[in-house]
Each structure stands twice: as structure tokens, then as C-alpha cells.
Amino acid sequence: MQHILGLTCISIICRTETSPGTSQPATHEQVVTPWDVQGSVTEDGKQSAIDYDKLIVQFGTRRIDDALLERFEKVTGRKAHPLMRRGMFFSHR
Known about the structure:
The chain is of the alpha+beta class and 93 residues long. It has helices at 52-59, 66-76, 82-85; strands spanning 2-4, 7-9, 31-32, 37-38, 62-63, 91-92.
């Protein structure tokens, strides 16, 4: 952990932690905050990928789909940004 300009910066390191007093790996749901992003950890200690559908529900956003991109292009008269067309952004508010 580093302190830079009054902010605490945490390096993301993949490791398996154990529950206190047991040799079983600690399990947890996915965590997404402005400071930390972690996929869920299963009972066997494997880290899962981020569930983007769960994020959409959690943060109340809407998926960016082809219909929305077509509407965006129709309203603006320009093609959507290449990263949007390639699916690099998955939801919006």
C-alpha cells in the first residue's frame, strides 16, 4: 500500500487468502468501487471474472447495444467512437 498525495493506492496482487482459523480459502462476492476491482472468489479459491450483467443491475445503468449505437449515430449525424463500436464500453447512464 502506498500513500500518494493523501490517497491510499493499493497494488492489485492475485493471491489466495484463507479464512481465519481454517485452511479454507476466503470466499467473497465481486467488489467494484472507485478504489478496488475484484472478481468473486469461489469456495475452492478460484477467482472469477467480473460479472458485467451484475454491475449493470448494481449501478442502475443500461447496456450499450446496437440499437442504441444506431440511435446515437442518427441523432448526432456521425459514427459512434471506434471504441464504442468495438464494444469497449458496455453500459451507460
